[in-house]
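Progress against Task 2.4 (sequence-to-structure conversion) is shown through the following example record, which the project officer requested during the mid-term review.
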Amino acid sequence: MRRRSGYAVIGLIVVFLAGGCATTRGKGLSQENESLKMQVQNLEKTVEQKDAEIDSLRRSLSQTTEEKYTAAKMARAEAATEVPTIRQIQTALRNAGFDPGSIDGKMGRMTRSAVRDFQKANGLSVDGKVGKKTWAVLSLYLERQAVQQ
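Structure tokens generated for the chain above:
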């Protein structure tokens, strides 16, 4: 009987040592929970900072886009009031993907045909003449080529 009770006592000691004290285990978990809470708080702060940064970038992009839109609108208005040369018309047509033939400064049959095709493709009145409305749209291609060179 003594042997059995000795084995039981040894068994209890082994279980106690292997399992550890419940309060020690609880403290370890509590410290781990606190550490995780701190990490979550830090991540939340980082997310808030990034959200503020994104909002700032969106406002900046919106302002830049508005400025570019206004500048393009003014450039179009200026371009519509100037009288283009035939070479400018031919160059803009070519840049827009419409073949005016050779860029020779003459308003020939191919140039007129390209103007009509351009007008049709852009929802303009198709008359083969480069008036203010046609030039306002076509001049964008002349500027685009000038920027690329």
